[in-house]
Write a structure and sequence with these properties.
The protein has about 220 residues and is of the alpha+beta class. It has 2 domains: about 70 residues, Glutaredoxin, CATH 3.40.30.10; about 130 residues, Glutathione S-transferase Yfyf (Class Pi), Chain A, domain 2. Helix content is about 55%, strand content about 10%. It has 11 helices and 4 strands, in the order E-H-E-H-E-E-H-H-H-H-H-H-H-H-H. Strands 2-1-3-4 form a 4-stranded mixed sheet, with helices on one face. A hairpin with a 2-residue loop joins strand 3 and strand 4. Helix 4 runs antiparallel to helix 5. The radius of gyration is 17 Å and the shape is globular.
Length: about 220
């Protein structure tokens, strides 16, 4: 496959749930890569030239060729590198996995931003909290009694969602709620993902580090 012998570089920010998805997928496939950290307040020329449309992380450079957008990158990694796939082989199951990954990206980041990018006490915080809880509850229903979203093993939807888990403490502290109280089965799933999958545990930042990063961003933008 084309990626097997090419140099692999990941442009990422350590708190990015989108970039950290890519880290999980690369680790799962045992792909050696170089991670280049990005300062999102002063984006590098390499990032801007590699992703001129959005100027965002993550970008995966394979043999110098850029692949952008995290869900696209996950599918590229599945196609380009040998190893256990994240997407199932069955066409219907693949369609369902893509649907739920798209649901996560359509719903969760938008309500999360209202929680952590709004001034304290703003109506947007409460609205974001309510919407976030609704999204997480919907995902908990979809998980049901399964160990993972796709069944018995870590898959595409799990990787799409689990990288938001280090942000939960930030959402809770700024939004005034408890994910564990609202969605206990989802919290148990998150613990399972990390405990049973070294590629997950090694790829996620510390929750307190995420919170301190967000506090710095909020201070920079005059939100606190």
């Amino acid at each position: 496959m084309e990626g097997d012998k090419a140099s692999v570089v990941l442009l990422n920010c350590f708190v990015s749930p989108f970039g950290n998805r890519v880290k999980i997928a690369l680790a799962r496939k045992c792909v050696a890569y170089e991670e280049k950290p990005e300062n999102l307040a002063a984006k590098s020329p390499l990032l801007l030239s590699s992703n001129p449309v959005h100027g965002k992380v993550p970008v995966l450079l394979v043999g110098g060729k850029p692949v952008c957008e995290s869900l696209v990158i996950l599918e590229y990694i599945d196609d380009a590198f040998a190893g256990e796939p994240l997407l199932p082989a069955d066409p219907y199951a693949r369609a369902q996995a893509r649907f739920w990954a798209s649901y996560i990206d359509t719903k969760l980041p938008e309500c999360a931003r209202r929680v952590w990018q709004s001034p304290k006490g703003a109506a947007a915080v409460e609205e974001g909290r309510k919407d976030m809880v609704a999204v997480l509850k919907t995902l908990e229903v979809e998980l049901g009694g399964k160990p993972y979203f796709g069944g018995a093993a870590l898959g595409h939807v799990d990787v799409a969602l689990v990288t938001f888990v280090p942000w939960f403490a930030t959402y809770e502290r700024l939004g005034g709620f408890s994910v564990a109280a609202e969605c206990p089965a989802l919290v148990a799933w998150a613990a399972r993902c990390a405990a049973e999958n070294p590629c997950v545990a090694a790829s996620l930042p510390d929750g307190e580090a995420v919170f301190q990063f967000v506090c710095g961003m909020r201070k920079h933008f005059g939100l606190d």
